[in-house]
Write a structure and sequence with these properties.
Largest sheet: 9 strands, mixed
CATH architecture of the largest domain: Alpha-Beta Barrel
CATH class of the largest domain: Alpha Beta
Shape: globular
Structural class: alpha/beta
Mean pLDDT: 91
Strand content: 15-25%
Number of helices: 13
CATH topology of the largest domain: TIM Barrel
Helix content: 40-55%
Number of domains: 2
Number of strands: 13
């Protein structure tokens, strides 16, 4: 039995960490405070420990490993979703200082048009409301209390789960209902505060970081028509390749929901030309070095990640890497 165990192939475990935004918020912060996964000090400690005890890998190494190539000892991967400005201003200097790499999945529509992420516009509308209650009519009658802490979740869940929703129309009605003044100029000002520019995204790429797709407008894929899927998936890939001058291989699904089991969505991802698809399903990714009879190989369009959160202690952060079954399940799924 011991001889058989020695001969049996052992899977490699890749810990892929998910971040969105690095910030230390005070009580006056007008945007969504739940999106920040670490303060700058926390992030530096985490990256220093990963650099000391792990071996950073990127998208190319992960893709090759899924095709049978060996992985280094203790492989770890750091990822960022969305495209927050803190990726460039805060995370990049820390990553370079400690010798770490990261993959940044960016939603290209917001970079192009300088608009606010829809969840951030909701947070800003609620925090700056001049009316206590908004009476919405689209896509269904709904009363929203500006000071109710549950309102943000109610509104973001509506966007995530409503098929073919006209998101700009919905957000415009919300702002009007709450008495919030809104214009393209106001939106661009807030977007510049929060979201990277293309120059900053290109700086990430020049620094040796992976820059990949998070679709165009961060729409939940299952809510879209086939034509909308093509625009979100192929459109984002084409925009990134034009801006960066290199192939884009991977997509992180908006809100991180698994889609590999839904043939319509999986087919759309493949048709758009992606080689990898990343979820927010909690856990480490196990990759077998050689195929085994009866063994289901790792699905390249269903890559799992480990969530991070500002409330996590350093001990908990590293415990979930060492023991992925104890992984933290994050509050947000953006």
């Amino acid at each position: 039995m011991m001889h058989v165990r020695k001969l049996a192939p052992v899977p490699s475990t890749v810990s892929i960490l998910t971040y969105h935004h690095i910030a230390a918020h005070d009580t006056a912060y007008p945007y969504d405070p739940g999106v920040a996964d670490a303060s700058p000090a926390q992030f530096r400690r985490q990256m220093e420990m990963l650099a000391r005890y792990g071996t950073p890998i990127g998208i190319d190494e992960l893709a090759r490993a899924l095709e049978g190539a060996p992985l280094p000892k203790n492989p770890v991967m750091v990822t960022f979703d969305d495209g927050y400005r803190s990726c460039h201003d805060v995370a990049l200097p820390i990553l370079r200082a400690v010798g770490m790499r990261a993959a940044f999945f960016v939603a290209t529509g917001y970079l192009n048009e300088r608009k606010m992420y829809w969840w951030e516009r909701i947070a800003l509308a609620l925090s700056s409301a001049r009316k206590a209650i908004a009476k919405l009519t689209y896509p269904r009658p709904l009363e929203i209390e500006a000071r109710n802490p549950k309102s943000h979740r109610v509104l973001t869940d509506l966007i995530k789960n409503t098929p073919q929703l006209d998101v700009p129309r919905f957000l415009d009605e919300l702002c009007a209902g709450l008495g919030v003044d809104w214009s393209p100029e106001v939106e661009a000002m807030h977007a510049d505060n929060l979201i990277m520019s293309w120059d900053q995204v290109r700086a990430l790429s020049r620094a040796g970081m992976d820059v990949e797709s998070h679709t165009r407008w961060h729409r939940v894929l299952k809510t879209l028509t086939d034509a909308e899927l093509r625009e979100e998936l192929a459109g984002s890939k084409a925009e990134l390749e034009t801006q960066l001058g290199r192939p884009v291989r991977a997509v992180a699904y908006p809100v991180g929901r698994r889609i590999a089991h839904v043939s319509r969505l999986r087919d759309a991802v493949v048709a758009a030309g992606y080689k990898l698809g990343v979820t927010n399903a909690s856990g480490a990714t196990r990759i077998w070095p050689t195929p085994l009879a009866g063994m289901i190989p790792t699905d390249r369009f269903d890559i799992c990640r480990l969530s991070t959160d500002r409330s996590m202690s350093d001990a908990m952060y590293f415990m979930q890497i060492a023991v992925p079954r104890l992984a933290y399940i994050g509050r947000h799924d953006l």
